[in-house]
Design a protein that fits this description.
Elements lengths: L4 H6 L7 E4 L3 E5 L9 E5 L11 H22 L3 E5 L15 E6 L18 H14 L2
Antiparallel strand pairs: 1-2, 2-3, 3-5, 4-5
Length: about 140
């Protein structure tokens, strides 16, 4: 897609630090890393978000992410890895091309706000109604 920075990277118009590549996927080092080893896994075909990505591309991203996560574990020895994927500006998606973050974490680092939230019991009736509404909309 014209103007998309990740499409330009896939096309070789912008350089990157490539971690992995196959026919459907490119993985690259994030140039604004949260931690050492922060890696982005992207489909080569442009899709803005989870709603738009083709299923085969989504599966390819996930397969690649699993391989890369193992390589991150073996090479960097993190205590854990955060997997993050954002959809839409309302959740701070900045590059409007589907991408999956792999963020290695050490137990000595401060918590990631996105992985630490207060557990507050919800309204069970509302939770049930919402679950039923979503289940009813499945195609």
């Amino acid at each position: 897609m014209e103007g998309c920075v990740f499409c330009k990277i896939v096309q070789g118009q912008i350089p990157c630090f490539k971690v992995y590549e196959d026919d459907r996927v490119l993985a690259l080092a994030d140039i604004n890393p949260i931690t050492r080893g922060h890696t982005l896994v992207i489909p080569k075909a442009h899709a803005e978000n989870l709603w738009e990505i083709e299923e085969a591309d989504l599966m390819a991203v996930q397969r690649a992410a699993k391989k890369i996560a193992a390589a991150i574990r073996d090479s960097l020895k993190p205590d854990g890895i955060a997997c993050l994927q954002l959809n839409g500006r309302a959740v701070n998606q900045v590059v409007m091309h589907y991408h999956f973050h792999l963020i290695p974490r050490s137990s000595t680092e401060p918590e990631l706000k996105m992985t630490a939230w207060e557990l507050i019991p919800g309204d069970m009736d509302e939770i049930k109604r919402t679950a039923e509404a979503i289940a009813g909309a499945l195609k």
